[in-house]
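lol ok so funny story. i was supposed to be doing the assay writeup but got distracted and ended up predicting the structure for this chain instead. priorities right. anyway since i did it might as well share w the group, maybe its usefull for someone
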Amino acid sequence: MAPNDPSFDEIIAKILACDDASAVTKTLVPFLNNLNEQVFSACPPGQGDPLDALSPAVHSFAYLYFLVHRCRASHGFHPSLMEKVWEFVNTCDGEQVRLASDKAVSFAEALVKMATESNQPIIAIRPLAVFVQRLQASKGQLTMIHPLLAKTCLLAQSFKDIVPIIDNDISDVNPANTHINYKDFLLYHYYGGMIYAYLKKFERAVEFFGLAVSAPAEVASAIQIEAYKKYVLTSLLQYGKVPILPKYTAPAVIKCVKIHCGPYTDFAAAYEKKSNTAIKTELEKVKTVFVRDKNFGLAKQCMEALHRRNIQDLTRTYLTLSIADITNLIGLGSESDGARRVEGIIVRMIESGDIFATISHEHAGGMVSFLDDPNHHNNTVTMNKINAHIQKATVITSSLVAMDQAISSMPAYFNKGAHLSDRSGFPLDEADYSMHLGYETYADEESYP
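and the output, tada:
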């Protein structure tokens, strides 16, 4: 401790005296912020552990200060420290922790660092997920921890704990309430889209990538451009075409998309022709770019999705077809295992309810009989679903207006003019590229099985 710092006993006594939100805000916040950093990392001989003297539920603000330094100093996980971590994230007072937003981020980063040093990033996920929910004032509030949690889940390829969190639509991004910045918003939706793509929830992936791309911007962020590339591919997987970007998408983003995403728009144009030959030719042309961008796995999935769409089209024209005929009609007749692949696709489509059909092997090669949808969609269940979707769309529209205003007020949004430019004059935030760091083992083909 520095000579002018209060003694250990004086610090603990001061903390114990501040046991309500008002005292924390008026007294404890300025007191702890003015202390030397060494105070929180030092453990005076014979004085005991400050974490034992404090309650993580009652003294959450101060407890976090000590816990951050304890985690930073640790190399790898230790059972005694993890007990303190779990006790804190399970019982901490979110209102107090929100007063120390910078320390909350430091705690989350230290937790990930410990897990990484132990070569077990998955260990940090559950405590981070619990911490995010303690930190949120509402389920729709985006916190500064969300992007880090999503990235850690991607690196560990473990999504059980984050899915319930990202399934809640974000409605509160007001910096005054959340302390988030512009990049937090972009990265959360970029990483969230990647998680949904991994889980093959492509409708939700499109929604997340779309929110990143259409966020207000004076100049485009590299994150938005990367998000658009995945927006194109996941849109093809979900809808068979690329939806037009919302009218409120920034002109700067639209311009940069046209400059930097040409291979993706060319691939989408070939895909919409529904020609197996055309799409294979185009995929071969853009393969190098897709591999470089770690999007080749998604592009390969588009091939089977194209076959599925072409088979669906056949159900509108034919009642019965042989598997050999279907194979030829969707462009796989020239492949040696084409018939086997087609039968496998049809079986999966029947199982998932994408088509209603039966397969008979009484005839050589097999025959497929297409059936009508047994659900006539004229019942109460269907009407309730439609009404629920309408209500959700209304809520989302209102939330988007509020988010647009909040994002536009973020300091980082106004500072985009200070960005660097690449060789083509495309303004880039150099720090945006940090989203790729640490992904050396994040193979695209493995990421999108």
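The radius of gyration is 27 Å. The chain is about 60% helix and 5% strand.
back to the writeup now i swear
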